[in-house]
Amino acid sequence: MNPFDAGSSEYDGEGGEYKKHSASHFASTGDWLFLSDAYQKWHSSSNQGLLWIRGDLDSISSADLWLHLQQATISMPRVYCVVDALDEMDRTKDLEPFLQSVAEFASWRSAKAKVAVTSRPVTYIEIPLRTARVFHLRLEESEVDVDIATFV
Predict the structure, then answer these.
(1) Sequence-ordered list of residues with C-beta below 8 angstroms from that of 77, at least 6 positions apart, any chain
(2) 8-state DSSP, 33
(3) Where are the beta strands (DSSP E) in 6-149?
(4) What is the Cα 117 distance to its own chain's centre?
(5) If you average pLDDT over residues 83-95, what whole number do you get?
(6) Within 13 Å of residue 99, how many CA atoms lie on the same side as its CB?
(7) For the chain, what percent of residues have pLDDT higher than 70?
(8) Which residues form the Nephrocystin 3-like N-terminal domain (predicted)?
(9) Could you give the CA distance from residue 74 to residue 50 in angstroms, rounded to a whole number?
(10) 12-61: per-residue pLDDT in tens?
(11) 10 Cβ contact partners less than 8 Å away, ≥ 6 residues apart
């Protein structure tokens, strides 16, 4: 009942990305989602395509999550984490500790654990990242436009 078992493509071909990712999947993780009544109804519905998964994660300690991430990556030869749209995070309470945790994770095994962060150029993110050991890459509209034109 995996939602990504939708048919053949280069993505799920013999050596494709889907095979690589599914081979690294930890058994039984995510089963609660696929077995839930709401997921089953959504997955089989022909007239409702949106599933809202919501919840309060305050009961899960951020420290525990970072520890699990570190433990999960110990045996991996190289890990790439992408933190997308950092500027959309609640900056009042969550942003600074999160940035510290990301920096710690990236420096923990910097030869093997790589973290890329995306955001709009806003000062409340730029300021803390100026003092950290960070490579900065500014998107140039002309370069991105070429990619978009190629794709479209």
Answers:
(1) 112
(2) H
(3) 79-83, 113-117
(4) 10
(5) 84
(6) 24
(7) 86
(8) 64-120
(9) 36
(10) 567 777 677 777 777 777 788 888 899 899 889 887 777 877 766 555 67
(11) 16
